[in-house]
Design a protein that fits this description.
218 residues
């Protein structure tokens, strides 16, 4: 029992690594350039997503009380994980809206639930006084883990190209090279995560083809 509880702390650290969406600054660029949505469409997506989040706050809290924190956390993480799929398979406004709403609903399930789950875990281990330290370490490891993952973006790009997927995927890793163009670079100036992403993609080799087989202009 105690070993299982100790593993919850390790799993939470991994959870913090793989649930950070450091590519969020790229989403508006992708939707405008390859989804052909307008700035008005982006505003509508943001507004509808905010409404969905507000509407789901109370129901998700009720579900967490009924199901328990761990099942709710797993379900919310599943929703956020699949929320990127509409960007790949559904083009334009509909894909952007569905992806954003899915992520928002999933986040509503996990927001607060993860912290409550970890607090319960530490209480069961009689280590509740270590809550701030454990959560701080998990956050730090999550950020460092994402820096490492971003630095490996060019490796994933090469795998996509070798597998013939670079031209097939509308939102493959190879598209990160497009963001480094002078045309788009100024669009992601702000935010620590955006700076990290921009630094990584500028070092990545430029792919021969972009989304859906489009060729780069000279």
């Amino acid at each position: 029992m105690q070993k299982s509880l100790e593993q919850n702390i390790i799993k939470y650290g991994l959870y913090k690594i793989f649930t950070k969406r450091v590519f969020l600054p790229l989403i508006p660029i992708f939707l405008i350039d390859y989804g052909h949505v307008s700035l008005g469409d982006l505003a509508a997506i943001a507004s509808l997503t905010a409404i969905a989040r507000i509407l789901m706050e109370v129901p998700t809290g009720y579900v967490a009380d009924r199901w328990g924190h761990k099942p709710t956390l797993v379900f919310g993480s599943f929703l956020t994980a699949i929320s990127v799929l509409p960007y790949i398979f559904i083009n334009g406004f509909a894909g952007g809206l569905l992806a954003s709403v899915l992520f928002s609903v999933g986040y509503a399930f996990t927001a607060g639930t993860a912290q409550a789950f970890m607090h319960e875990t530490l209480m069961a281990l009689n280590r509740e006084n270590e809550y701030s330290r454990v959560m701080g370490l998990a956050q730090s490891r999550g950020l460092l883990g994402n820096v490492l993952l971003i630095s490996l973006a060019h490796v994933a790009q090469g795998l996509f190209e070798q597998g013939g997927l670079a031209g097939e995927s509308r939102f493959g890793v190879g598209a990160l090279g497009d963001v480094a163009d002078d045309e788009h670079g100024p669009a992601i100036r702000h935010g620590v995560e955006a700076d990290v992403v921009r630094a990584a993609v500028r070092k990545a080799p430029r792919p021969a083809r972009g989304f859906a087989g489009e060729k780069h202009s000279a």
